[in-house]
């Protein structure tokens, strides 16, 4: 109910002109840079890390890797003559593996499986899986997109562009790694885990 009310309030605010259209970028920046990372930090700092079953986490990550492979195969079958095949594979795989775990899933799971009654801590699984999505799943899709873009640049430049002016192949991996390390969600979750572990040893 809370999620539906929030969605309805946002929709009504936009339709009534209470929130202008150009404010969406600012709201998204605040939510993605401050609000969600703080939520990840709070949950990671307060959860019992020993209560999680690693087999569940590994199974979900492997399932998402399988979805990436299926998305890539489906892209190859549906559009075998695509101009940017690797980019399309990464884009479709990214769409297929994304899920709104925090905004929609977390309130629903908290209402259905409260931590007080279910020691398995299902809401905590959503927080960890959301972080794993950013750290180990999204980079595969983004790497495919960047790889495809690099091939497009090389193809467009052709042999007329000097080799020293072309982007190095290592720049793809560097962009992805830098994006992971500087992601506010990853930094928030990492800080929460550090706080959690430090409180255990105090």
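^ Assign residues to that structure.
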């Amino acid at each position: 109910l809370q999620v539906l009310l929030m969605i309805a309030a946002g929709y009504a605010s936009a339709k009534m002109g209470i929130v202008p259209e150009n404010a969406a970028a600012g709201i998204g920046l605040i939510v993605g840079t401050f609000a969600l990372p703080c939520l990840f930090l709070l949950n990671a700092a307060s959860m019992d890390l020993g209560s999680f079953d690693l087999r569940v986490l590994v199974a979900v990550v492997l399932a998402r890797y399988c979805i990436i492979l299926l998305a890539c195969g489906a892209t190859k079958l549906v559009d075998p003559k695509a101009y940017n095949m690797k980019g399309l594979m990464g884009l479709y795989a990214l769409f297929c593996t994304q899920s709104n775990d925090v905004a929609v899933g977390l309130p629903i799971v908290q209402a259905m499986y409260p931590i007080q009654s279910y020691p398995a801590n299902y809401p905590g699984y959503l927080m960890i899986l959301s972080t794993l999505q950013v750290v180990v799943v999204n980079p595969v899709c983004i790497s495919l997109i960047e790889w495809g873009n690099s091939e497009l640049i090389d193809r467009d430049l052709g042999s007329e562009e000097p080799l020293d002016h072309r982007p190095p192949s290592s720049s793809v991996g560097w962009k992805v790694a830098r994006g992971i390390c500087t992601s506010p969600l990853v930094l928030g979750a990492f800080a929460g885990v550090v706080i959690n572990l430090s409180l255990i040893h105090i």
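The CA atoms of residues 87 and 145 lie 4 Å apart.
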